[in-house]
Amino acid sequence: MAKQAKQAKQTGKEMQAELTGQLERIAAFNGAALDMVTRAGQAYFNSMTAVNEELMRFAALRLQHDAEFGQTLTKCEDWSAAAELQQDWVHEAGEEYFAEAGKLLELASKVTMESWKPVQERASQALEELQTTST
Predict the structure, then answer these.
(1) Domain residue ranges of the chain, discontinuous segments joined by +
(2) What's the CA gap between 111 and 43, in Å, rounded?
(3) Is the pLDDT of residue 25 over 80?
């Protein structure tokens, strides 16, 4: 009976050591996951700040051009001059909106890439750790 008690005590210590090891691995994984999420969130925030700045820059530019158009329109002496001015304004605005759409697509791509970079890095690291532990 003393032998069985000793074996049970030993088995209990082994189980406790195994559980402690597993908990340490889980804590390490969660710490890395939290770091990954934090870095991804920061990258997203920084990238979205750039998008907001670009939108504000473009809005200010368009307001300026629209105001200039309005002032120039009031100085037109006849309808044909006003129509020509309006055609020029529409053409210019269309080109500016098209160029802005390209900039925003580029920024959206950057947001995606920068936000996913920490996730990709952590996935690669976890895969390396898994390969190291399995060999």
Answers:
(1) 2-134
(2) 8
(3) no
